[in-house]
UniProtKB/TrEMBL annotation:
Coiled coil, from the record: none
Pathway membership, UniProt: Metabolic intermediate biosynthesis; chorismate biosynthesis; chorismate from D-erythrose 4-phosphate and phosphoenolpyruvate: step 4/7
Sequence ranges assigned to domain Shikimate dehydrogenase substrate binding N-terminal in this UniProt record: 6-89
Statement: the UniProt record of this protein carries the keyword Oxidoreductase: yes
Record protein name field: Shikimate 5-dehydrogenase
PANTHER family linked: BIFUNCTIONAL 3-DEHYDROQUINATE DEHYDRATASE_SHIKIMATE DEHYDROGENASE, CHLOROPLASTIC (PTHR21089:SF1), SHIKIMATE DEHYDROGENASE (PTHR21089)
Taxonomic source organism: Dyadobacter endophyticus
Gene3D superfamilies, alphabetized: Leucine Dehydrogenase, chain A, domain 1, NAD(P)-binding Rossmann-like Domain
Length: 257
């Protein structure tokens, strides 16, 4: 039996388990299962790797995407090393481990496809990245590789971040792609949203929320009410999950969009 799973804490609900269980059924993938491994500390990871025979790969979620790096044998330099975070671990036959970041691929590819469907090109945009956590790091690297200029927006004012209250109408007019990488608005806290000046959002703006539950967050709803194009994080999740599966089931891992 080939075993795959998700590590994190807490694991109250899991897109990954549902997605891969459905995938195994739909594609008639035999002798494979996906489990949730709720661990309170990464110190539990080495024992998990020893105990679970047939473990071929793991997804990693909050709060371990950065700290898990110290527990791995190797890092993919095209994704995880550059980003400084891991959301996918490949476990080889000899028990060695290698970390990847498929959030990078999922975000970048979903953005390209979304803009293309609307007759737009990445070269037409500058982006505001809301938040400065682990998810934001993957978005930054993806945008750099697309040669898209971006500005970080955070609650804290720093050398590389603009505070929310520092967003002027001029900035909003120039940065038409707004990406929420924070968990604000995630179920069950659906009445929360990033505090950007929504009155300056127009039909020329594109709002992308990495949150997928609910399907329309308050951030997206406020943008839609101003005429902006909107998209949630479901497509990104699906793409990163398929990239994880490719990594787990092939020896060579090609990182190209």
């Amino acid at each position: 039996m080939n075993l795959y799973g998700l590590i994190g804490f807490p694991l109250t609900h899991s897109f990954s388990k549902r997605y891969f269980t459905d995938k195994f059924t739909r594609e008639k993938i035999k002798e494979s299962s996906y489990e949730l491994f709720e661990i309170k500390s990464l110190e539990e990871l080495p024992e998990l790797l020893k105990q679970k025979h047939g473990l071929r790969g793991l997804n990693v979620t909050i709060p371990y995407k950065k700290d898990v790096i110290a527990y791995l044998d190797d890092l993919d330099d095209a994704s995880a090393e550059r980003i400084g975070a891991v959301n996918t671990i490949k476990i080889y036959a000899d028990g060695s481990t290698k970390g990847f970041n498929t959030d990078y691929y999922g975000f970048q590819q979903s953005l390209i496809e979304w803009l293309d469907k609307r007759g737009e090109s990445c070269s037409n945009f500058k982006a505001l990245i809301l938040g400065n956590g682990g998810a934001a790091k993957a978005v930054q690297v993806a945008l750099k590789d697309l040669q898209m200029e971006y500005m970080l927006v955070s609650r804290q004012n720093s050398d590389d971040c603009v505070p929310y209250e520092g967003l002027t109408q001029e900035i909003m007019d120039n940065y038409r792609l707004i990406i929420n990488t924070t968990p604000l608005g995630t179920y069950p806290n659906t009445e929360e949203c990033p505090m950007i000046p929504y009155q300056w959002v127009t039909r020329n703006h594109y709002l992308y929320d990495l949150v997928y539950n609910p399907a329309e967050t308050l951030f997206l709803k406020k943008g839609s009410e101003q005429g902006a194009a909107t998209m949630n994080g479901l497509k990104m999740l699906e793409l990163q999950a398929e990239k994880a599966w490719e990594i787990w089931t092939t020896e060579e891992n090609l990182w190209s969009v």
